[in-house]
Amino acid sequence: LIKFAGAGATLPISSFGNALVKGAMAEAARSGPIGILTGTFELTSSGITASIIFGFFFALLFNPKG
What we know:
Order of helices and strands: HHHH
Distance between the termini: 40 Å
Shape: flat
Number of helices: 4
Structural class: mainly alpha
Low-confidence stretches: none
Radius of gyration: 16 Å
Helix content: over 70%
Mean pLDDT: 80
């Protein structure tokens, strides 16, 4: 993905997609087709967890406008 997209694949938003693809490809090489499903979350689970936790805390701290 980095060879195709260049530096754009390393920016924060696209980097997440790049990490999903890298994890899926690495795990697929090790475990076969089931690795595609498990590998996508292996590299990105900490980012997903952090976004859920930070979102929860910000929801407690701030009131919505609507």
